Every structure is written in C-alpha cells, then in structure tokens.
Amino acid sequence: MNESQRSEGEFYEYLWKKGLQAYKNMDFEIDTNLMDKSQDKRLGITLIIRNGFPSNDAFKQFYILLRHIDPYQHYYENTELHITVLNIVEMSKDFQLSHYPIDKYISILQEIFYNLKSFPINYCGVCGSPGAVIIQGYDRENRLNMLRDKIRIAFRDSGLPNSIDVRYKAIASHLTLMRFRTQPFDIGKLWSLIVENRNVDFGASTISNIELVCADWYMSREKIDVLAKFTLQSN
Fold it and tell me: Per CATH, which fold does 3-231 belong to?
C-alpha cells in the first residue's frame, strides 16, 4: 500500500512503526537546518490551518513535559503550529514569490472556499516518528481530504504552475510539535512519554479558517507572509 492509499489511522500506524525502529536503533532523522534557521533560504507557497488546535490540560501538560525531557530539539511556537492542507509550490532556496500568479491562485481558491462549512478535527494520541513528535489529528467526516481533492482538480485544470503532491500526497491532519535537530538527550524518557500518551484524547476543535502563505518549511514566525485568508462558514 502506498502513501496515497492510506487512511489517517493507517498513516499514523505506519509512522509509529518507523518511529519504533528509529528509537530501537538510534537511527533518527536529524534536521541540521534547524541548528541555524537563518541560513535556510528555502521558501514556498502553502495552504495551512492555524486555528482549532487542542487546548485542554492533557495537551498542555504533554507539551510541557516534552520540552522538559528534551529541551535541545526544535519546538514549534503557538503561532507556528499548523496542519498542512496542501503545498502549492514546494520549498526551494531559489524561490521567488514574484514568479508565481498569486492573484490567480487566490481567485481559484475563493471559488472553492465559497460557502464552505467549518469542520471538526479530533486530536487523539501521540506518534513518535524518526524525525518528529506529532499529535494525531482525525478528520472523521473526511472534509479536509475532500477539500484537498477539489483543490488538486482545480489547479490541474487551470494549467497554473504548481507542485502539488510532487514530494508527497497530503492525507492526514496531524500537528508537528517537535523536530529533531540533534540526537535525543534521553531516549528512554522521551519514548516512555510518547508511549504513555499514545492514545490520550486531546479533544476536538472546529476549523474555521484556512490561510495561503509564503513561508519556510517550519512556518517560522519571522518568515511567514499571509497571502490570503479564507473564512469558513459556521454550521
């Protein structure tokens, strides 16, 4: 089964198995760009969600403990936490915003988002992958993936330059909390924390808006430029 055929649950299980092997073999995916993000010149255009995230005590406590156990990794600030809807133009060090028809992108997206209803995401469980720690999001109504497919078709039919699905096909609604920029400080404690929270219910939230942004790979606060914001209608 390839990545595009997996359900969210199957995708998280796949990541979990990869993460388990990484922790057993101490074979982590270290992102050396995170040692000095100012030197990472890659930028791109992405549709993201930056609202409707878990805010209950279980989530807050997990995030605090995670940072306490391994303070040497890269942690996303609250404004950087996001769900990737689609990468419209993949990140590249040669990227120049002026080379892309942003007004036409926005026009296509406005048609798609017109009258689109807000939708819930359930956050349940933690997954430790070889390169990150994520909160598992579940789109029980499959609204996000239906939206992704509409956007894929619209951009395909438009003939406008894009690189949607070139690197991977987005199918999940997870939140990345931490990425490895160096070897874990205490692998045992980190893995134990992940296992303890493997099936914790972090609550549900409603997605009420989606943003088109120019940003780096990490949605860094100092590098993100909001090109358009699409508000979803309340149900």
Answer: Cyclic Phosphodiesterase; Chain: A, (3.90.1140)
CB-CB contact of 204 with 58 (8 Å): no
pTM value surpassing 0.85: yes
Q: What tokens does 1 get? A: 């089964």
Q: CB neighbours (10 Å) of residue 8?
A: 19
Beta bridge partners of 87: 46
- Residue 136: partners with Cβ closer than 8 Å, 6 or more residues away: 8, 12, 123, 124, 125, 126, 127, 172, 174
Residue boundaries of the structural domains of the chain: 3-231
Q: What string of H, E and C letters represents the secondary structure of 15-75?
A: HHHHHHHHHHHCCCCCCHHHHCHHHCCCEEEEEEECCCCCCCHHHHHHHHHHHHHCCCCEE
Structure tokens at 124: 């349940």
Q: How confident is the model at residue 218 (pLDDT cuts 50, 70, 90)?
A: very high
